[in-house]
Description:
Mean pLDDT: 86
Low-confidence stretches: none
Shape: elongated
Helix content: over 70%
Number of helices: 3
Largest sheet: none
Strand content: under 5%
Radius of gyration: 19 Å
Distance between the termini: 65 Å
Number of strands: 0
Order of helices and strands: HHH
Amino acid sequence: xxxxxxxxxxxxxxxxxxxxxAASGDDLDGLSAAxxxxxxxxxxxxxxxxxxxxxxxxxxxxxxxxxxxxxxxAQIRQMTQPWMRRLEVLIGGAATxxxxxxxxx
Length: 105
């Protein structure tokens, strides 16, 4: 069972790396696909459960992978948050424009 869990964490790490590459290249489709892979892997890990006893080496590997994924996540957020703020402004501006158009035609 430990090898199955570590395998899932490796899949998660690979998907996280793909997310980072996609975010670096402004590849929103790739980012979305890799994020979906991450979500599916996390769901699989949740289904397996946390009650599995792991060796000390397994625990160390799991924690190393989690740290790598969190580091990728921090970089992805740095890259995408400015873009998301601009998108929010654009969407907010379009909604305001529609309300004004509806009110004053």
